[in-house]
Amino acid sequence: MKRRTFLISSLSGLSLLALSGCAPPKPAPTGTPTPTATPAPSLVPQPQDMLRSSWSDDPFARGSYSFAAVSSTPQQREDLAEPILDRLFLAGEALSDTAPGTVQGARGSGQRAARDLTSVAEPGERVAVIGAGAAGIAAARLLSDAGFTVLVIEARDRLGGRIHTVNSDSWPMPVELGPSFIVASNANSLDEELTGLEVSHAPFAPTPEARTPDGTVTPVSPVGADTVTAALAWAAEQAQDTSLAKALVATGSTTLSMTDGEAGVSDADWLDYQLATSTTLESGAPADEMSGWYAPAPATTAMDDIRIVLGGYGTLVDDDAADLDVLLSSVVTRVGYTDTSVSLRLGTGESLTVDRAIVTVPLGVLKSDVIEFNPPLPFAHRGAIAALGMGTLDKIWLRFEEPFWDTDAAVWTTVGDDTLDFRVWVNMMPITNEPILVGFVSGKQALGLAKSDDTEFTDAALRSLEPFAIVATATPAP
């Protein structure tokens, strides 16, 4: 039995739970037990190699990127960016008012914090930058070029933060476990910078090929996107913010037809499809946590405005970090500040004092309170940290010996079975001529898989790929 939508699934789940709790135990069978049937072999072969991310389980990330949670506002991103006593500054993608959740948003926020600092400081002052991700390195680069003495302190043993490029001899290309794309490339210079660094990238058209569980290719219905659009329009007219889930209920999503239409897909299935393959993917959060006022609207990015990075996103950070003083594998546990200096305590027990500091750790780390601020951050900053959400999106990269699929589509999606964890796949074959697939899992599904071992994670991915496997035609017996 397949579940139709996240709303109907929730109600059905409660009913099934109640029934299972009240049902009497079934009598044990007597006589000769029936042999257990051997499961049919999977149509998807085992991969030659696998790499995965688990950002929510990463203590130095605690999520993938920020999102607009219910009752949060864009102003709170601005509040977080306000300097504190002109000594302490915060930066990161969560503080970007124009491009949150993106590399360009993180870098822009870091540069903004550095400019705010330079406007109140004297060249030569000693500045600590906490975090060597896109925001931290961008801030440190600008400050160093402006004549400040900069020390970057990074908890990981590598640069990049949530930009995580893996170079391995067993892979024919760099593997991106963090961001892979340049979004809105017409509005920023990331593609030009990567070209200057001789990092290859290519246009990417995210037009999906949608398949049902039995592998039938079906045109994408506008029902799901139209339903979400109507819910967001309703939410925008309300006096108070509400979740996207409640907005969907209010606009009649629970009355969508569950009757199978073309290819056995119902209107309710198409709503689930929109949420799983687009809306939740963009925010990394389920609909019951997303703001109805600020949740991403369907199809807001132009099809010709996306590029995929093929030659190593991490090169961007490595180049900016050239000749910077970076202290790796050093966790900052306490940040003390006054109107004259900033003191830092490391996990090793060591302490140092600087004139000013920029904190660029992810929102998920700030929400976890693992860094002690003394005195506590101002109320507006703490309120913003509590209100904004941290979403999760994880990836799995699979390299096969040869393609087991027969489609040249670059993006694969599934509709009609929301028990599959990986609902979106990128086929690297037409882009790189390599039999590599990249799967995406987000929201509650990502959180559910985060602590699973590599075998469980891979098995979930392979099951999600079955609609795209070539079904061999059986040869009749002579």
From TrEMBL:
<feature type="domain" description="Amine oxidase">
    <location>
        <begin position="42"/>
        <end position="117"/>
    </location>
</feature>
<dbReference type="GO" id="GO:0050660">
    <property type="term" value="F:flavin adenine dinucleotide binding"/>
</dbReference>
<protein>
    <submittedName>
        <fullName>FAD-binding protein</fullName>
    </submittedName>
</protein>
<feature type="signal peptide">
    <location>
        <begin position="1"/>
        <end position="23"/>
    </location>
</feature>
<feature type="region of interest" description="Disordered">
    <location>
        <begin position="25"/>
        <end position="55"/>
    </location>
</feature>
<dbReference type="InterPro" id="IPR002937">
    <property type="entry name" value="Amino_oxidase"/>
</dbReference>
<feature type="compositionally biased region" description="Pro residues">
    <location>
        <begin position="25"/>
        <end position="44"/>
    </location>
</feature>
<feature type="domain" description="Amine oxidase">
    <location>
        <begin position="135"/>
        <end position="467"/>
    </location>
</feature>
<feature type="region of interest" description="Disordered">
    <location>
        <begin position="99"/>
        <end position="118"/>
    </location>
</feature>
<dbReference type="InterPro" id="IPR036188">
    <property type="entry name" value="FAD/NAD-bd_sf"/>
</dbReference>
<dbReference type="GO" id="GO:0016491">
    <property type="term" value="F:oxidoreductase activity"/>
</dbReference>
<dbReference type="GO" id="GO:0003682">
    <property type="term" value="F:chromatin binding"/>
</dbReference>
<dbReference type="InterPro" id="IPR050281">
    <property type="entry name" value="Flavin_monoamine_oxidase"/>
</dbReference>
<dbReference type="GO" id="GO:0006338">
    <property type="term" value="P:chromatin remodeling"/>
</dbReference>
<keyword id="KW-0732">Signal</keyword>
<dbReference type="Pfam" id="PF01593">
    <property type="entry name" value="Amino_oxidase"/>
</dbReference>
